[in-house]
Amino acid sequence: MTDDCVLVTGAFGLVGSAVVAELVSQGRRVIATDLDIPANRKRAKIFTARAGVEVRWGDLTSPTDVWALLEAAAPTAIIHLAAIIPPFCYARRRLAEAVNVDVTASLVKAAAAMPSPPRFVQASSVAVYGARNPSRHDGFLTTSTPLQPSDLYGAHKATAEKHVTASDLDWVILRLGGVLLAEPRWTLDRDLLFFEAVLPSDGRIQTVDVRDVAYAFCAATMTDHVREIFLIGGDDTHRVTQADVGTESAAAMGLRGGLPAGRPGNPADDHAWFATDWMDTLHSQKVLDYQRHSLPAMLYEIRAAVGWRRWMLRPLAPVLRRYLRRHSPYRGFPGAYADPWGAINKRWGDPSPTRHLESDQRAAPD
């Protein structure tokens, strides 16, 4: 299509950068928008040298900026990725709602008013299903599983979905699992390490390579399956526990044994789990054909990228283990089970849904 143009919001985040790269590889014209900050400008340089990519900086929390952007871009499809995700959404509740909910509403309204309304592809999350106790839920998540968000982010995504599905646009919603990057982590991000450590070690999670996520979003802009919701996770090898993700990633870096054992979840407390679980991805794979990278293949890529440095890193594993033990989110916490919401509240603030969003979910069940 000569007039094909895809507008990507949140274009320079983890998923956004991969989506822009995939669209470019398919020869499609892209308008990439994000906040004008140094980190985003650095990432944007990778794409601005390529034909077919235009960068437009803007603040999507301004409805005026949203309307101006869509009028200037006139996209045939919008991939809406801009979001404030856990754990940072808990510390900035008002801003997170403005970005995660209000921006979606503004984009949908502006898109619907265009002379040729674009397709709207919304990034959502399995967080809409809420805390998942594997002792009680032994099946896979499906698109018909009831939405019961137990945290702010899940409530945001559930409400944003309702703005999309209530519109007359051709929409597609992708509920993402745990997105991974097949690259070594050379820096210690204390916030992310803390966040990963608060999660129940035996909690189920279905991960997915960010490149496969990008392919799914690109496919969603072209599929005949519109006004549908899809669960996006990797193949069967990606159905793991939270502990597996950390220990195997560390081992791929040469740091086997570097992560101390986490706390398991309380099987008698349905609330004391995080909002992740395994998914039924048969339909999404059949329609979007996006699952390209298994978890073992991703770990192999990490090992290959680290290369000979793995031998140098091995002696550091005990040092890392001691460091993480000293900075454990559960150091001084009573009991033997994980308390993810309590630990999150202590570090970032109240993670529970805003009351009016909770009311929206009760009043309008999925």
Give me the CATH architecture of one domain, please: 3-Layer(aba) Sandwich
The count of helical stretches stands at 15
Distance between the termini: 36 Å
Q: Class of one domain in CATH?
A: Alpha Beta
Spatially, the strands of the biggest sheet line up as: 3-2-1-4-5-6-9
- Quick one: how many beta strands? 10
Structural class: alpha/beta
If you compute it from the alpha carbons, what radius of gyration comes out, rounded to the nearest whole angstrom? Answer: 20 Å
Q: State the helicity in percent bands.
A: 40-55%
Could you name the CATH homologous superfamily of one domain? NAD(P)-binding Rossmann-like Domain
Which blocks of ≥5 consecutive residues have pLDDT under 50? none
Largest sheet: 7 strands, parallel
Q: Would you tell me which CATH topology of one domain applies?
A: Rossmann fold
In what range is the share of β-strand residues?
A: 5-15%
Produce a short descriptive summary:
With 366 residues, the protein is of the alpha/beta class. The chain has helices spanning 14-25, 38-48, 63-73, 88-91, 93-112, 152-165, 190-198, 210-220, 242-252, 282-288, 295-306, 309-313, 317-326, 340-347, 355-363, and strands at 5-9, 29-34, 53-57, 77-80, 119-125, 171-176, 178-180, 204-209, 228-232, 239-241. The strands form two sheets. The protein has a seven-stranded parallel sheet, sandwiched between helices. Strands 7-8-10 form a three-stranded mixed sheet.
